[in-house]
Amino acid sequence: MFQLDLRESKPLYEQIKEKMKELIISAVLKPDERIPSVRELAQTLTINPNTIQKAYKELENEGFIYSVRAKGNFVAPLEQKAIRPRRDELRKELEKIVAELSYLHEPEEQLISTIQAIYQEKEGKKDD
Amino acid sequence: MFQLDLRESKPLYEQIKEKMKELIISAVLKPDERIPSVRELAQTLTINPNTIQKAYKELENEGFIYSVRAKGNFVAPLEQKAIRPRRDELRKELEKIVAELSYLHEPEEQLISTIQAIYQEKEGKKDD
Amino acid sequence: MFQLDLRESKPLYEQIKEKMKELIISAVLKPDERIPSVRELAQTLTINPNTIQKAYKELENEGFIYSVRAKGNFVAPLEQKAIRPRRDELRKELEKIVAELSYLHEPEEQLISTIQAIYQEKEGKKDD
Amino acid sequence: MFQLDLRESKPLYEQIKEKMKELIISAVLKPDERIPSVRELAQTLTINPNTIQKAYKELENEGFIYSVRAKGNFVAPLEQKAIRPRRDELRKELEKIVAELSYLHEPEEQLISTIQAIYQEKEGKKDD
DNA sequence: GTGGTCTAGACCACC
DNA sequence: GTGGTCTAGACCACT
Predict the structure, then answer these.
(1) How far apart are alpha carbons B126 and D95 in whole angstroms?
(2) Chain B residue closest to D6 (CA)?
(3) In chain D, which residue's Cα lies nearest the Cα of B68?
(4) Could you give the domains of chain C?
(5) Which tens digit of pLDDT belongs to each residue from C34-72?
(6) Which of B16, C4, C30, D96 could form a disulfide with B55, with the two C-beta atoms 3.0–4.6 Å apart?
(7) How far are the Cα atoms of C89, C103, C115, D93 from residue D85, in angstroms, in the given order?
(8) CB atoms < 10 A from the CB of A81, how many?
(9) pTM of the model
(10) 3-state SS class at A15
(11) Best of D5, D9, D47 to disrupt the B interface by mutation (most B CBs within 10 Å)?
(12) Cβ–Cβ of D94/C99 closer than 8 Å?
C-alpha cells in the first residue's frame, strides 16, 4: 500500500496519516471504501498496532475516515463540518511557502501553472 | 519584535526560526542588518539563551543569517548556492498543499489570486 | 570505542564528530549499523549527554548518521546528493596542505605513496 | 594584500595567519622581505592592532616570520628546527582528508595528479 | 558585551 | 529506553 521511512524525524503515526490522506485525496481510495484494519496494516508495515491506532484516530477526528465497530474503517465522504478549519490551516501554510519561494526568486508564472496542472488533473479523475 | 506561543507543541527554537525567517523574507529585516543578540532576545522573550543560540545556529546553517564573533548576528544576503535544493523542497510542499486544498473544493481562482497578492506586495517592497 | 582529550582546545563535540567519522570512513562501523545511544556514550566518556546529542545532530546534518526515534542512531549508507560539495571542500583543503608540505621540502614521492597506501587499505576492506 | 571574511567562524587572527602563510609559501613574499607593520596592516584591514599582533606572534613561533625590534617583521628563511613538528601535523591532516575523499569515491588518480601539479608549479617558481 | 561550549538535571513524545 | 527540547548557570575566546 505504501512505505514508511524510519529515518524521517516525523513520527511514524504522522507519516501514516499523510500517506493515507494522499491516497484519499488522489481518489485511489474512494468514499465508503474499506481501508485495511489496524492489525492488518500493522502486520504489513511491521510496526506496533498502537501506532496505526493513533493514526486512524486522528484521521477520524479530521474527518477523512470513519470507523464502524466490528466492521472496520472506511473512507469518509466529504462533509462540510471538518473542512473549514483544515482549509484555513492549509491556506496559511500556502502563504508561507509562496512568500519564501518569492524571496528565492521563483517566478510567479511557475507557481500558477503548477496550480493549474493540479486542478486539471483533478478534473480528469472526476470522470472515473 | 515577535511573540512565542508556549502552549504550541512546536519547539520554541523552531518558532523562533520561523518568525525570524518571516521577518527576513518579508524584508522587514534587510541584508547585513543586525538582529538582536542571543542574550537580548532571550531576555525580551524571557526564555533561555541556549534556546535562542540553537535557533540562530540553525538559521545560519540554512543560510538566512551569519554570525560574527563578538559582534552579533546579521541577515545574510541571498546567495546563489543554497537556493536550488530549498526551492525544490518548497515546490513539493506546495504541491501537497494544493492537492489537499483542491480535494476540499477550494476554488482554483482563490489560490491564484493569493499568489498574485503575495508577489505584488513583494514588488512594492523593492522600491524601499 | 575511543577517547577524548580534555586538554585539547577543540570542542568536545567536535572531537566526537571527528572520531565517529573516522570509524565510519574506515568502515569499522558499517552502513545501518547501530552506534552507541546518546546516554550510553555519555556515560562511557563521562561527559554530558547534551554534548553527545549535539555531535550526533551535526553528524546527521552532514549525512554520516541517521537517527530513529526511540530506536537509536545508525550509520547512514553513502548517498549521492551530499557528496559533491563536501568533496570540493576537501579538495581545497588538500591543496593547501600539499602546498605547505612542498614548501617544507616534503618529497613528492612520500605524499603519493601515502595516498596509494590509503587507497590500497580501502580495497582490502571491500572484501569484508 | 588580502581580505578577511568576517562571516567565517574562524577567528580573525587565524585568517590572517593563514593568508600570510599562503603568501610566504607561494613565494609572493621572499625570505628576509619586510612585511607590513602591525599598525599598517591593522589600518588597511580596519581591525584592531591587537588582532594583528596575535597573528604575527604565532607566525613567529611557528617559524614563518621573525621580528626585529624597531625595524619591523620579516619573512624567515626556511630553518630546520620548526619544520619537523609542523610537517608531522600536516601529514596527519593529509591522511584524514585522503581517507574521507576515498570514502566519497574520489578517484586516486585525481589526487595524485593534483599533487604533481602543485609540485611542478613550485619547480617553476624556483627559477625566479 | 558577543557568540560559543559545556554541565547538571528535568521533562516529553515515541515505540 | 530512546532521541529531542529546555532551563539555569558557568566559563572561554574574541574584539
Answers:
(1) 50
(2) B68
(3) D7
(4) 12-75 (1.10.10.10), 83-126 (no CATH)
(5) 999 999 999 999 999 999 999 999 999 888 999 988 889
(6) B16
(7) 25, 14, 20, 13
(8) 7
(9) 0.81
(10) helix
(11) D9
(12) no
